[in-house]
Amino acid sequence: MADKFREGKYDERQTVVRGRAFKYAYGTLLVALLLYAVTEGLWSWCEPVTGCVAAIAVSLIPYVWISIMNEAYWWANTSRLGQYVVFVLLGIMNLGLAVSSWLEGDMVVDGVLQIGGANLMLGIVFIYVFAVAVIQRARLRREGDSE
Q1: Rounded to two decimals, what is the model's pTM?
Q2: Are 80 and 147 in contact (CB under 8 A)?
């Protein structure tokens, strides 16, 4: 099993694209954390862990888009079906935890977003990764059919 992961490598093009994606994600993370810090200083709207998870979730949006749409998210020549399933399961699990928190009345307590909000954001991000991957897969298949 460990040999399987050791064999997977990114080619030079993928490394360059991933570097660009990391740059945009890092910039987005800094802006999101700054916005969180400023708004948290004005009023306490969420738990600290929820605010940090929100910033991380927002920063994943440009990273995922750039890397998946440029075929740099996964190793070259690997099967992605298992990874698609994992992203969907993680998304459903986190959304389920968020719904459970909402139904129990624990999502917002005294006007402060609780940890259920972090589950909601993570669930949305995992589903977003899956959706972008499916869009890219369909795009590649369409381009392959037109050639």
Answers
A1: 0.85
A2: no
In angstroms, the CA 124 to CA 90 distance is 10
With tokens 């927002």, the residue in question is 58
Instruction: Tell me the per-residue pLDDT of 89-146, one tens digit each, with 9 for 90 and over.
Output: 999 999 999 999 999 999 999 999 999 999 999 999 999 999 999 999 899 888 876 6
Q: Which amino acid is at 120?
A: L
Residue 73 phi, psi dihedral angles, 5° rounding: -80, -40
Per-residue 3-state assignment (H helix, E strand, C coil) for the chain: CHHHHHHCCCCHHHHHHHHHHHHHHHHHHHHHHHHHHHHHHHCCCECHHHHHHHHHHHHHHHHHHHHHHCCCCCCCCCCCHHHHHHHHHHHHHHHHHHHHHHHHCCCEECCEECHHHHHHHHHHHHHHHHHHHHHHHHHHHHHHHHC
Which pLDDT score, from 0 to 100, does residue 73 have? 84
Q: Are 101 and 136 in contact (CB under 8 A)?
A: no
